[in-house]
Design a protein that fits this description.
Shape: globular
Number of helices: 13
Structural class: alpha/beta
Number of strands: 10
Number of domains: 1
CATH architecture: Alpha-Beta Barrel
Radius of gyration: 18 Å
């Protein structure tokens, strides 16, 4: 049985592995495949599904696949990007309209968590975006509210005291949050979601990925040159996943997949538990030696 952790100060006990809905949307996975994938994952103990309004048809696919099992999982989504990551709408009315549309697509009357999808520090400081989420919570459309993003915007989201959760990048190629936001999030009792916990396995083919989305991590990992990345794909993915699992303050790690068996494989990799301290600190030490100040998380 996969481990579950108390999600900050909320009433949720979340599986340490969650499902990320980006890939099924961007890779145009069929409804039958998504239904099979999610049904199997829920059967095996996964209870967190995270998606976003802009992941193409992801919300619709998820709603059609598992809405009949709504009591079996916690449903998280994000708002602020309309239809694509290139089009933003941070207005009060726009965010509420987006949340209503997400509820319809997901075939539910409430979300367990609604998150701002990487809006800027400037937008957060204006306050309107936070008020919109608080209004959705007041109306019963969301039980909890959160911020999904990185760097100083994520730090402000934790400091302001108005969010229940933080989703942020934490992996062998994304370690800024380990010092910048996670200690304070833990102190304040926020639920913490690690996004891209295996850095998209950008090293898996041994050559630069064709998809530009993975280029930043490929380039970072080339410079970091961790020895374990030459241990073979299964062992290197296991080390990467266990590294994120070992970071204090993380409650669930969101991994996307289009393969029905991948959830069980990843759960098996975590059976070994946290990385040995020496291995964990070696990865942290290498990051501190090599990482550039610009190496922050991506949307």
């Amino acid at each position: 049985m996969i481990e579950k952790r108390q999600f900050g100060r909320t009433d949720m006990q979340v599986s340490v592995l969650g499902f990320g809905g980006a890939e099924i949307g961007f890779h145009q996975v069929s409804q039958d495949e998504v239904t099979r994938l999610l049904s199997r994952a829920l059967d095996d103990g996964l209870n967190v599904i995270d998606t976003a309004e802009c992941y193409v048809e992801s919300e619709t696919l998820i709603g059609n696949a598992v809405s009949r099992r709504r009591k079996d999982f916690y449903l998280f989504t994000k708002c602020g990007h309309v239809k694509s990551m290139d089009h933003e709408d941070w207005s009060f009315a726009g965010l509420l309209r987006s949340i209503e549309q997400s509820l319809k697509r997901l075939c539910t009357d409430h979300l367990d968590l609604i998150q701002l999808h990487s809006c800027s520090l400037e937008e957060l400081k204006k306050g309107e975006v936070i008020r919109a989420l608080e209004e959705a919570k007041r109306k019963g459309q969301a039980r909890y509210i959160g911020y999904s993003g990185d760097s100083q915007a994520a730090r402000f989201a934790v400091e302001c005291g108005r969010f229940d959760a933080l989703q942020t990048s934490v992996s062998i190629a994304d370690q800024e949050a380990i010092e910048l936001t996670l200690p304070l999030a833990r102190e304040r009792g926020l639920g913490v979601i690690a996004k891209r916990p295996i850095a998209n396995a950008a090293w898996r083919t041994g050559k630069k990925p064709a998809n530009a989305y993975h280029h930043a991590y490929w380039e970072r990992l080339e410079k970091l040159d961790y020895p374990f990345l030459r241990d073979g794909l299964e062992r290197s993915v296991a080390t990467a996943l266990r590294f994120t699992y070992s970071v204090p303050g993380i409650h669930t790690m969101i991994v996307g997949s289009t393969q029905p068996g991948r959830w069980r494989e990843n759960a098996a990799l975590l059976a070994a538990g946290s990385l040995p301290e020496a291995d964990f600190h070696a990865i942290r030490r290498r990051w501190k030696e090599v990482a550039d100040a610009s190496w922050a998380g991506e949307i």
